[in-house]
Amino acid sequence: MDLTALAGELQTGLKLQVLTNEPLSRHTTWRLGGPADLLARPRSREELDYCLSFARRKGLPLHILGNGSNLLVLDGGVRGLVVQTREWRQVIIEGRKILATAGTLLPGLLQVASKKGLGGLEFAAGIPATIGGAVVMNAGTPAGCLGDRVVRVEVLDCDGHSHILENREISFTYRHSSLRRAGTVVTVTLELVLDEVPAIRERIEANLHRRRSRQPLEWPNAGSVFKNPPGYYAGRLIEAVGAKGWRVGGAEVAEKHANFIINRGQATAADVMELIERVRETVARQLGIDLELEIEVWGEGL
Which Gene3D superfamilies match (predicted)? Predict the structure, then answer.
């Protein structure tokens, strides 16, 4: 595969430079991961359509990247084309409804909504994701999840055709949705609730304070590594088997919250994977509970 030639051809339809062999450690919140063959950053609907069409025409494997949170990219990197959406951020408000393009970051969306006196998203304060990625995984906390607020989602299928999916047509479950197999998310429409601006901001600040006090946000991380098994909290199970502070290379089970694995510097994806498997095996052996990953894993090992 001639990456330079492919990048040059793809570049004709984009404003930002198409990158080749781009380390995805620069684009993930864990700050680790191998290179993408091609990385494109569309800034409009037209550019997004162009990227997806290019991947289809060239037969390239396609990966949609938001803010790189909740994601582990293996050290061998990702083949084909990675399309990063976060350069395309647009928000339109109509009454209590708010339409956001896939690359809109949740913190920015929350800020826009709060200024207009629109509440209901405060649970998402501090989640470093794009709305596109967040809706696919039904991001949330015990206080709420994104699926509760979704009115409709526009997706592009594998043939490039646009479809509008109403909430009733989407299955939202714990950290998962049927959107994962529906196509590429283009826009998300949410319905919020009218409230007083000071009250909304107070809840946002309270949630941010709670996150800072309980989660190791001072270190690169990808959020919760494991889903909470029914009736349990994954972090408490991991703590119960004595795994807090376990290290492999530069990766460590965080002392502040055991369901976080932090990059203490120079961690590799292999370090993280080894630590994940060690934790899973120990919890299964000692407690008889299987932990399921909440993060996505992309790419190839070395």
Answer: 3.30.465.10, UDP-N-acetylenolpyruvoylglucosamine reductase, C-terminal domain, Uridine Diphospho-n-acetylenolpyruvylglucosamine Reductase, domain 2
Q: Mean pLDDT throughout 256-273?
A: 97
Tell the burial category of 29 from Cβ atoms under 10 Å away from its Cβ (0-12, 13-18, 19+). Answer: middle
- 109 CA to centre of own chain: 15
Q: Catalytic: which of 175, 177, 203, 252?
A: 175
Choosing from 22, 122, 154, 294, the catalytic residue is 294
List 25, 69, 114, 224, catalytic entry: 224
| CA torsion angle 286 290 291 293 (round to 10) | 150
Within the chain, which residue ranges are assigned CATH 3.90.78.10?
216-298
- 1 has pLDDT over 80: no
Is residue 294 among the annotated active site residues? yes
Looking at every residue in the chain, the average pLDDT score rounds to 96
Domain 3-84, CATH number (from 3.30.70.20, 3.40.50.1370, 3.40.50.261, 3.30.43.10): 3.30.43.10
Fold type of domain 216-298: 3.90.78
- For the stretch 60-83, pLDDT in tens is 999 999 999 999 999 999 999 999
